Amino acid sequence: MDPIMMEFSQHSPVLIVMAPFLLGMAAAAAGWANRKWAFPMAFLGLLSGLIAAIHMLIKTAKGEILVYHMAGWLPPFGIAYRIDTFSALILTAIMAVALINLVASRASAEKDFTEKAPAWYALYVFFVSGLAGMVATEDIFNLYVLLEIASLSAYALIGMGHNRAPFAALNYLLMGTIGASFYLMGVAYIYIATGSLNMTDIAVILQEMGPNPTITMAFALCMTGLLAKMAAFPVHGWLPNAYTFAPDATTNVMAALTTKVSIYIMIRLVLSLFPLSLAFDTGIIADAMVWLATIGIFAGAFMALAQKSFKRMLTYIVVVEVAYMVGGFWLGNRAGMTGAMLHILNDAAMTLCVFMAVANIRARRGADAFSDLKGLFQTMPFSMGALVISGLAIIGIPPTCGFFSKWYLISGGIEAGHWGFVIALLSASIINAILFFKVFEIAFFEVPAETFGQNSREHESDHHTHHGLPSLAMAEARISMLIPLIIMALTLLALGFMTGGIVNLFIDPAIPGQVL
Amino acid sequence: METLYSITPLLALLVSLAAVPAIVSSRNMNAREAWTFAAAFIKFGLVLSMAPFVLQGGTIHFTIAEVIPGVPIALKVDAFGLLFALVSSSLWIVTSAYSIGYMRGLDEHSQTRYFSFFAISLSATIGVAFSANLLTMYLFYEMLSFATYPLVAHNQDHEGRVSGRKYIAYLLGASVLLAFPAMLYVYVQAGTLDFTAGGVVAGNVNSGTLLVLALMLTFGFAKAGIMPLHSWLPVAMVAPTPVSALLHAVAVVKVGVFCVFRALTGTLGTGPLSDAGIGTIIAIFASITILVSSLMALSQDELKRRLAFSTVGQLSYIVLGVALLTPAALQGAMMHITMHAFGKITLFFCAGAIFVASGKKYISQMKGIGRRMPITMTAFFIGALSVIGLPPAGGFLSKWYLVIGTLESGQIAFLVVLLVSSILNAAYFLPIVYRAFFCPPEEDLYKNESIKESPPWCLYPLSITAIGCLVLFFYPQPFFRLAQLAVSQIMGG
């Protein structure tokens, strides 16, 4: 490697945040000069983020843990970024998801936002770099700052939608701010008790300090704040509206990433900041969380059943998936935690895939109420193929990735003897199957009324009208939306086959040895 | 026992999947069907190429991916797997020919979709046959459920929609709610899911848990059609007849009993099951299914539905054979997979041929049809003999072994079940043949119609499988030898 590359590569942990952030500003600036430059800037920002992430993925896979001190200041005074195998994995997922969606969304973003497109690109990249920073940083206050960067961008991104979007964004802003405030108060308590903001440093201090009511309070505040941020039942209320009314290009990335990063933060705080004994020793907190997740799964699934449009139905599936991960993690055993962590990755991929498929349908049909989905298997076979694969992943059918995280989650539940959670997961599979087959049936068996007579070959061959449906002309989404979607669908299969390697290399080393 | 590591089983599995893009992108019908035939012949050739090695007692292994610690996605070809793969892949060739006659004869819509999903279904079937562990088998089992859904729902009308819904609800519901958690429980207890002589749970679970696991695995693979999870099969008859013939008389349903077979013998183990007396409980479920379904078959007027209920009963013969847990019974059960496959596919081909030639679906309309379609009805007669279990058709042999199995296990009640059900089988099949040949045709049934034999693409396949039924009686050696070997591999002898 030549010296300049060498120099750069050392800075990967911070470049993954700074490169997108700076190029995001460039994208906004491009709006004043020439709008055409905005997309390349945003693309370049996320691409450099992805390269940095993959670079760290390779390094951590070799057993290295990357620690970066901002401006050379050592903790506890300076801000440190710390990347282990699991954070590298999640960073790669974030950047890959964001980049793929950026490419897929370009056409609709330029069309929807016209002169505001550069602003959308800039906010989009800010949002992603905020998320990446949350994953990378080891400083709990810096984490709050990055959380706000991501959140503020998210409010604006959602607010750019039509109709009720601004109102949904406001609702999200209120809930999000409350959640963030809880977290910030937790940080304050920790700082009062330990005088430090660095996770590793705090963990050492807490180890020596022993049980402490201030820390217990801090723990409760941080967890409550994060639950609101991740839209865990019953504080999920902001999510369905925000994601339903946001522009598709925004929803895709947000549904795939926001909740997942909050869960990552929860896992990281419990595993590497607070003493494990605080979370799991009494069993009361953990048990309560698993039951909360169990109820959340049923509640989310039933609410999903009641929806009348596709995108909105999916937003409730996001709520259900959050409960999978919360419950799996709080089972407290290795299988459950592995399941939760693996599902962060898998759920990001399959949520992106399914929302992209719906975005394609909405781009073509202009709507996504169930009654607008008729005949789709004929008119959009490729998008529907990808939709079927992502549906199978969400139901949990092998060899898609969703099956394998469910495998770990359920075996964790069996090991822990937590039958309520096991039954909830199995029931969720069935309910998801019902949800998706409802869509598949409409798309397969029904034909849009207006196509009778005109667009069909029906009248040419009246003698076999009893043979199936009239043929519809194919009307697929544009190729720039279709190819990323197909790549994602194939990724869902590939991730399934790679489960063993992912768990061995990136997830298992990140779970502390005392978790059995 | 010799083992060999080879990619051949994976290729045999993938060849029909790989044909799908070619089938979809073909410019005309003949090119499309050429791809189906190419895939079918290559698949059969690959399966056959493994036969000599396996017949010498060897097994062939291939690992696709390491996914879960101790549980890879892996393939293993042993005698039982090869037996099933030989049956399915050989009959796919015949069915492909028949499909051409049937689908073109009726000018069906969406034939490309039909042939594509047919090919995918065969990949899944071979995948089940060659699975080395429960996870791999579950993977292909689910793949088969989804791949056959568009075939069941082929007509895309209201009936297709309702039937498809019932089909997927039963199959997916049972597998997700019963088989999947049972599999996970075994994994948590045993740390492995490999099919092993003697099972993997011995010593890890008590007999109560073993009973629950056995029932969950038996009913979880609902494709085996054990009552009360059988009613998806009659409704699946709404599919085009080649689908009913190959998938719902051979591939799909046999996958069900194959999975039950593997899960009971390879995962739970014949020893623990017979020690705990669990075999008998499953045998009782199977016996009830055999008798009740035969009685229900008697009252069906729609030919395909009668055949479907007959299939439900015949599948439970195989389950009964497994549940008796004795060598002869296991051998009989395996032989019955082959014998029933040839017999029942012939019967379905005939039902489809009658429909193509005359549009008739109901038995009451088929009086005297034997005079107009003599070849078809002769084939029907041979198929019926085989399913009833009468010489000179192959079905006699497998039933013979099942009967010996009941004696071996000393449970005479099940012998009675077999004999009574044979009488019932005769009672619902032979009148059809009798009426077709010996009752004078009621002319108002055939007014102004000149019904003659169905097109050659239908007629030759059904003749071939009918002859197959007879050949299997006189020359059952390859399957006989495979079943014998498989029993020794399963019993750990």
Automatic annotation (TrEMBL), chain A:
Keyword terms, alphabetized: Cell membrane, Membrane, Transmembrane, Transmembrane helix
Gene Ontology process terms (BP): ATP synthesis coupled electron transport
Membrane topology field: Multi-pass membrane protein
Superkingdom to which the source organism belongs: Bacteria
UniProt xrefs under InterPro entries: CPA3_Na-H_Antiporter_D, NADH_UbQ_OxRdtase, ND/Mrp_TM
GO molecular function terms noted in the UniProt entry: NADH dehydrogenase (ubiquinone) activity
Main localization of the protein described in the UniProt heading: membrane
Subcellular location: Cell membrane; Membrane
Domain NADH:quinone oxidoreductase/Mrp antiporter transmembrane: 138-430
Transmembrane stretches, start-end: 12-32, 38-58, 89-107, 119-137, 143-160, 172-194, 214-232, 253-276, 288-306, 313-332, 344-363, 375-397, 417-437, 482-507
This protein's GO CC annotations: plasma membrane
UniProt family annotation: Belongs to the CPA3 antiporters (TC 2.A.63) subunit D family.
Name assigned to this protein: Multisubunit sodium/proton antiporter MrpD subunit
Organism: Desulfobotulus alkaliphilus
Automatic annotation (TrEMBL), chain B:
Predominant location category: membrane
Compartment(s) of residence: Endomembrane system; Membrane
InterPro entries on file: CPA3_Na-H_Antiporter_A, ND/Mrp_TM
Membrane topology term: Multi-pass membrane protein
Xref: Pfam families: Proton_antipo_M
GO cellular component term of the entry, any: endomembrane system
Record-annotated NADH:quinone oxidoreductase/Mrp antiporter transmembrane domain positions: 131-424
Residues annotated as transmembrane: 6-24, 36-55, 79-102, 114-132, 167-188, 208-233, 276-298, 307-325, 337-357, 378-400, 412-437, 457-475
Keywords tagged on the record: Membrane, Transmembrane, Transmembrane helix
PANTHER family: NA(+)/H(+) ANTIPORTER SUBUNIT, NA(+)_H(+) ANTIPORTER SUBUNIT A
Official protein name in the record: Multisubunit sodium/proton antiporter MrpD subunit
Taxonomic placement: Bacteria, Pseudomonadati, Thermodesulfobacteriota, Desulfobacteria, Desulfobacterales
